[in-house]
């Protein structure tokens, strides 16, 4: 287990750090983690929705959406407040449509060097969402009170492939490790809505992979906990523990997706291939069948 705080200056070794497999690293900067070429949940998610060629393009052309930037900022603000100012800069409120405003903004971005620039509105949203986490007893406990460390990077072999995962927070309760993951949602944070999100966005696969990774690096994972924050005001918060039985049901999905990753490693430029029969989504097919049945009964 490597503790970055006691290791060499990460800013010096950004381009030379290579993890061993398996290992756990505390304090590894996000920029270093993301620069490591290894299978991850985000890569598997891309392959599940697209082709090896799409993943190859995304890796060569990384980009941050506004949602992703706000999500990263919230993680830093909630979990590592001391590092927030090292990673993010808050833009001044200037009218960028004017010559002077545009010049002032560009000068600010230049002075911010490699920091991610947040607009004043984005920062206000981050502050409001973070405040909601602090006001929620259970969320605050998993984010701060319970003993643990934030932004824990794990490296291990999964299905024979070098794999990386980054736990938002790793809590230890009575000798058992709990993986804590912060999610933001445009929908309600209600149980019904978030269960739909678990399926829609592949969070079940993430839970399964992260627990496999935790076991592979010698941890004793017992639970996977989500802290869910609504992006819309009043930014309500919910905390959920993922069902153990449901997590196990994703074993097959993880094997299937890691096999797709092996194809990506061998054929990174592969796109859509072959000819297959196509129809309509199952919900549309049921509608057509019902319409046919109704026409017959008329």
Identify the notable features of this structure and list them briefly:
7-stranded mixed beta sheet; 298 residues; alpha/beta; globular; Lambda Exonuclease, Chain A
Question: How would you sum up this structure in a few lines?
Answer:
By secondary structure, this protein is α/β, with parallel strands linked by helices.
Provide the fold topology.
Elements: E1 2-3, H1 10-13, E2 23-26, H2 30-35, H3 41-49, H4 52-60, H5 66-79, H6 81-87, E3 88-90, H7 99-111, E4 116-118, H8 120-135, H9 137-145, E5 148-158, E6 161-173, E7 176-185, H10 191-200, H11 203-216, E8 221-230, E9 237-241, H12 244-249, H13 251-266, H14 282-297
Parallel strand pairs: 1-2, 3-4, 7-8
Antiparallel strand pairs: 2-5, 5-6, 6-7, 8-9
Describe what you observe in this structure.
With 298 residues, the chain is of the alpha/beta class. It has one domain (2-270): Alpha-Beta Complex (Lambda Exonuclease, Chain A). Helix content is 50%, strand content 20%. It has 14 helices and 9 strands. Strands 1-2-5-6-7-8-9 form a 7-stranded mixed sheet, with helices on both faces. Strands 3-4 form a two-stranded parallel ribbon. Helix 7 links the parallel strand 3 and strand 4 (116-118). Helix 5 (66-79) crosses helix 8. The longest helix has 16 residues, at 120-135.
């Amino acid at each position: 287990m490597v503790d970055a705080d006691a290791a060499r200056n990460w800013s010096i070794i950004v381009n030379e750090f290579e993890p061993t497999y398996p290992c756990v690293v505390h304090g590894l900067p996000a920029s270093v983690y993301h620069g490591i070429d290894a299978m991850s949940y985000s890569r598997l998610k891309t392959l599940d929705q697209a082709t090896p060629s799409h993943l190859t393009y995304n890796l060569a052309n990384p980009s941050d959406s506004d949602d992703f930037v706000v999500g990263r900022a919230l993680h830093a603000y909630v979990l590592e407040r001391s590092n927030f100012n090292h990673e993010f800069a808050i833009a001044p409120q200037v009218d960028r449509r004017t010559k002077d405003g545009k010049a002032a903004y560009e000068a600010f971005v230049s002075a911010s060097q490699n920091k991610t620039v947040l607009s004043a509105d984005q920062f206000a949203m981050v502050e409001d969402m973070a405040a909601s986490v602090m006001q929620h007893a259970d969320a605050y406990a998993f984010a701060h009170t319970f003993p643990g460390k934030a932004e824990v990077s794990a490296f291990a072999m999964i299905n024979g492939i070098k794999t990386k995962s980054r736990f938002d927070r790793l809590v230890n309760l009575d000798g058992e490790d709990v993986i804590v993951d912060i999610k933001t949602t445009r929908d309600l944070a209600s149980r019904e809505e978030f269960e739909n999100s678990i399926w829609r966005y592949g969070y079940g696969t993430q839970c399964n992979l992260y627990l496999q990774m935790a076991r592979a690096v010698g941890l004793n994972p017992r639970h996977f906990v989500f802290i869910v924050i609504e992006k819309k005001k009043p930014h309500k918060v919910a905390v959920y523990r993922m069902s153990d039985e449901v997590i196990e049901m994703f074993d097959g999905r993880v094997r299937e997706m890691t096999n797709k990753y092996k194809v990506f490693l061998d054929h990174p430029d592969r796109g859509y291939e072959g000819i297959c029969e196509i129809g309509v989504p199952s919900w549309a097919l049921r509608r057509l069948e019902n319409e046919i049945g109704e026409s017959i009964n008329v």
